[in-house]
Amino acid sequence: MNVKGHYEWLQRLTPLLVAIIIANVLTVFRGYWWNDTYNIIWLSLAIISLVHFLGIGRLPRFVLYTIEFISIVIVTIMIRKEHFVPIAEDVKNLTRLWHYIQSMHPFIEIVLVVSISLLLLSAWVTSKKRLYIFFAVSLLILCVKDSYSPMKLWLQIAIIIVVFLIWHTLLHFHYLQQKNSTSFKLLLHRPLAVIMPMFVVIAMLIVIGTNLPAKPPLLEDPYALWKQSRGEKVEIGNGLGTGGGGGLSSTNDSSPLNSMTSGYSRTDKKLGGSFQFDYSPVMTVKTTHKSYWRGESRYYYDGTGWYDTSYLSENEGLTEIIRVDEEFIAEERPLAQTVMVEQQYNFVRQAPLPVLFAAGQATRLLEVVYKDTVNLSEELTDITEITTIGPGELLKGALWHPSDWRIEQYGDGTVKSNIATYQVESEVIVIDHQALAEATATIEDEDAMEAYTSIPLLFPERVRKLAEEVTATANNDYEKVLLLEQHLKSSYNYTNTPDTTKLTGTSSDFVEQFLFELQEGYCDYFSTSMVMMARTLNIPARWVKGFSSGVSDEPIVNQEQLAYTQYMKNSDTSGTYTVRNADAHSWVEVYFEGYGWVAFEPTPGFAFPYTYVDDEINPLENVLVPTPAPLQSEDITPKQNKEANQSLGWIGYALLAVLVILAIMLGVKYRKELIELMNRIRYRKYSMNERVIVETTNFLSYCYRNGLVKVNNATLRETVSSWNFGSAAWRNDLQQLLHYYERAHYSGEVMNEKQLIEVQNLVKSLKKGFAKNKL
Fold first, then answer.
1. Which of 30, 168, 343, 390 is deepest in the core (most CB within 10 A)?
2. DSSP reduced 3-state for 334
3. Contact yes or no for 236/414 (Cβ under 8 A)
4. Residue 632, class by beta-carbon neighbours within 10 Å (0-12 exposed, 13-18 middle, 19+ buried)?
5. How far is residue 634's CA from residue 255's CA, in Å, rounded to a whole number?
């Protein structure tokens, strides 16, 4: 392979390496871009890389770019075609074309920017220095996003490090070939010796990194260090509890999941684990109707948890500042019957709240009271300062998010005021089974519909199949949702300490693990599973978190049931409820056209305190509920399933061992033919002169490895002549081999195949003679 040919191969591979890094860096937009955007970008990057790999050196550049542009447009059309708005048949072709071009906005612009960036970077990164810059910027973007957001990007970081090492090695080989083509060709004779150390180092780093025990970080984020240096506490939650999971909190951020206690937490990026109930009170709620106390919702699920991001459509993208006693922008629900619920929240301990709780959709804040402890001086005792925000006054730092019914008290975590009490008015839907059965679970806004029906790209197919089996007898969307809710309540067990030893390791998806392996858990397991099962049926759903009703002043159940049982089903019961950390909860909301978001409760032992239309009949009473039988859910117990997987694993290993042994036997039997074939492949682009040089230098290296000394600052013939080794015939054959080497290397004579065969026979004879003489 000549220098030009090697550089051409490097040019072919460069777009692929750039594409892999770009694809991983663009992960930082996860939660902001739709799945269509990612699918178009990934496919376009793959096509550009393939076209460059096949076309470099064979097609003119403008032809390559034309093919790539046409491919990008086709890819965008194919992926977005289901979202194109129909156009009348009698419209002129040019107008029709322009219509479809507009339908591709902004996807075509985004993918063109990414594609042009790919081509520019491929042309720019031609040296190690530029590669270092490109790698450092990419790594910095991922590291910053990983540190200052809920995203877990360690896999993407590992991928670009591996790509960097491979790319750096290719560039190093290119420079080596430019300096000394002969040395480079000799290096290619032993490719495994060059490649294996790199892969061994990478493999060792991966194995060590993935098996190290999890420990708290030794270095904190700069922001946290800066805050602590000022003597300020770094608030990462809401003061009611921090930690992972929708209903979990922990007093120690470094504590494992099984040491967590219940409580409201804002971070839900990794669901699962166990927790202990904390019955300490958080607040009391005086209300005209019993309800769940809603905090916020999530829509983006990545397979392990929910991200702190809300969907904002173009119409609802502007949040609303809050003035006390002024009505919020409300979601239109023209077909829904609603009741107004007034609540007063009194907090047991004051803390900066990130969100304010409310029953259903809040409509306005009536009053907010702050209570802060103020230290006037070292000589004076601390005093309590009370501030009341009355009608018409601006609630500083607070925003209303119409899209997900969230009253955000502060977004940056810098508010210092502690809320002691507030009053809020809410609009709660009255459940009308018959009317909802006639409604369609869909959202007119296409972007919103796509957001609330989105599932991960590699979401387990058997979750979809289970959802279809469960809802097979449903007559409408509402019955489908009720059947999903009923199936989860009746088929799975509630526990705050799920047995994780049931996990087989065959799945990394949180929902799949719960439905087919654990089959037990708490609210986060049930609610997340119902949301994702509904989405597989193209039913818009979102995950909601807050608190369940709490304990009434007149409890009607025994104390043993306080852990996870609701206390009254009659939502019209007014009164005061004590809400504890143990009441932190998550549930589901599904969107029905004309009725908006409707709450559903899939967790066993819990009952959402609905208000019903009089004399309602549950539509499920007339529906034959199917009994789905997923393979690993009922037919096989988790223990049997694990044993079955282990048996299949041993069978696979046994078959692999048999194949390896068979391959070794065939290799030994046909070793001469295999060696000859490998040599033909290895040296297919070598000239006869180069083959003679290679055969000679390989044999001399063999001699050096077996004890014969290479003399420094001496020619090859002088080195060989100094060897006092072997018989006269052996030394004569060695001199003849050197004669062929010198002719091939220095004379300019073109060697033929007959001479090459003679050299190969000499080498075989010399190796046999070497072994005899050594003995």
1. 343
2. coil
3. no
4. buried
5. 35
